[in-house]
Amino acid sequence: MKNLALFDLDHTLLPIDSDYEWGEFLVRIGAVDETAFRRRNDEFFAQYQAGILDPVEYLEFALGTLARFSRAELDAIYARYMREVIEPAIKPKALALVREHQDAGDLVAIITATNYHITAPIAARFGVEHHIGAMPEYDASGNLTGKLVGTPTSGPGKIAHMHAWLERLGARFEDFERCHFYSDSHNDLPLLSIVSHPVATNPSAKLAAHAQAQGWPTLHLFND
């Protein structure tokens, strides 16, 4: 059985939060009301950093910003977002780290609390086939409804979604001799604590302190 390599996305493989920056991008292009949207977006981001975010409340706020557009409008806006915001943020060291695990034959996945519609093109840009994110609901025409399907992919939810993904592949977590998980956030401590090789990657102060206490390695991808 191959080894397993799991990656968080925001502030781990990217030096930005793709969901927060999506909101800021919508403000910049005039697609949402700046005052009302930025106030809510900033409140949710502060709650995330403090570890007190209600993931369902936030996700349905974020998904609501997607639902206001038709699928064709959203695809056009998102292509511009990828070009103007995401591409400049992708760093060679992050690409190389993913490629290192792929070249070693590891089963690689990105597992993120951000919604799947936002992060799927980013995972594809990293060349990662397997991607787990919070799943938005779509209507019969393929437009987003603003609702979340199932449970969030955050905190302990990452463990549940990881097991479900592996089951769909006909595998079990216990089958892997080695499992790396790279994350920047203390919110990912549930999954970091069960893998054989947790790596605190560009860690927050809280995660850095925990990693030091546990003897976990620390990796910085965005120093230069």
From TrEMBL:
Query: Which positions are tagged coiled coil?
Result: none
Tell me a Gene Ontology molecular-function term this record carries. hydrolase activity
Keyword Electron transport annotated:
no
Alphabetic keyword roster: Hydrolase, Magnesium, Metal-binding
Looking at the record's lineage, which domain of life comes first? Answer: Bacteria
What's the protein name? HAD-IB family hydrolase
The species is: Massilia phyllostachyos
Q: What is the lineage of its organism?
A: Bacteria, Pseudomonadati, Pseudomonadota, Betaproteobacteria, Burkholderiales
